[in-house]
Specification:
By secondary structure, the chain is α/β, with parallel strands linked by helices. The chain contains nine helices and 14 strands. The structure holds zinc ion (ZN).
Length: 295
């Protein structure tokens, strides 16, 4: 009983701190990748910006309180209207600004499952829920496998990868510029969060990472969902890390170890540098264990 109460108190504090999070100190920093592709770092998922001759296409929009600063940062780069907003998946740190951007004139584009999840209340870990997004904040154009924008001389491919971080993940690949935004299928340098409750799976992420490694070359600039800009070499190391952890946990389950024993066995050994982000070593082992146990 005491334990349950303590858990509840921790939960309330966690919710409170999220609701009262102070975004006023967050700075939006732009990093130029090519003459017309930028990434914006702030708080939440990394934003991609493509500056066309007549219009701007952006990828993800972090949290609602940051919209004004994000729009200002884009206007520093281009005076053209933000015509399209692509959501890489439904999570609030990537879609929180949708309503503001739609009011600003952007048409939201995403995988069909993003529309589905944003139209219904979503159950979140620790008993939390996310209410359905208002109609204006939901994607207006959806697709199931692929969708391509032809903008100026650039082909901008939206590629869906199945059941990876969620069930509605999209990569955005700028073919001529050789830049790939991978959304949250890639947390550069950190253990990943994989949303099993939203149709995500560890094997799905591994399959996506293998697919990405065949798509990119040594020159490709990769925009991860979180973390610094990246490249094929780092992506390969990340795939190897997740593949190794998956195999270690699988073998431990096969040896009939309990989750407690598995957590005590330091299965993340050698990958300490990936610890310290949103997902701890314990948490990634937990996610892989939970995923493998339900298969
Ligand atoms: Zn996410």
């Amino acid at each position: 009983m005491k334990k349950a109460l303590l858990f509840l108190v921790i939960l309330c504090i966690a919710n409170l701190s999220y609701a009262q999070r102070d975004f006023s100190k967050v700075e939006i920093k732009a990093e130029k990748i090519t003459d017309n592709i930028y990434t914006l770092f702030g708080s939440g998922g990394n934003i991609g910006v493509f500056v066309g001759k007549e219009q701007v296409l952006m990828i993800d929009d972090q949290f609602a309180p940051l919209s004004e600063k994000i729009i200002a940062a884009i206007q520093e780069i281009s005076d053209k209207p933000i015509h399209y907003l692509v959501n890489t998946h439904w999570h609030g740190d990537h879609t929180g600004g949708n309503e503001n951007l739609a009011k600003h004139g952007a048409t939201i584009v995403a995988h069909a499952n993003v529309h589905k999840r944003m139209s219904e209340e979503q159950k979140r870990p620790f008993g939390r829920t996310t209410p359905a997004a208002p109609e204006i904040a939901r994607p207006k154009i959806t697709f199931s496998d692929e969708l391509t924008f032809q903008m100026d001389d650039e082909q901008i491919m939206l590629i869906h990868v199945d059941n990876a971080h969620t069930d509605g993940d999209t990569w955005v690949y700028f073919v001529q510029s050789n830049v790939l935004h991978m959304g949250d299928t890639y947390f550069n340098g950190r253990f990943p969060y994989i949303d099993l409750g939203s149709g995500g799976s560890v094997t799905g992420v591994l399959a996506a990472l293998n697919q990405a490694l065949t798509l990119v070359d040594e020159e490709t600039v990769i925009i991860p969902g979180h973390g610094k800009l990246s490249n094929r070499k780092e992506l390969r190391a990340y795939r190897n890390m997740l593949g190794t952890l998956h195999e270690r946990v699988r073998l431990a389950i096969e040896a009939e170890k309990s989750l407690e024993e598995i957590k005590a066995a330091n299965l993340t050994e050698g990958y300490e540098s990936y610890d310290g982000g949103f997902i701890s070593a314990d948490k990634i082992v937990d996610i892989i264990y939970t995923d493998l146990s339900r298969e």
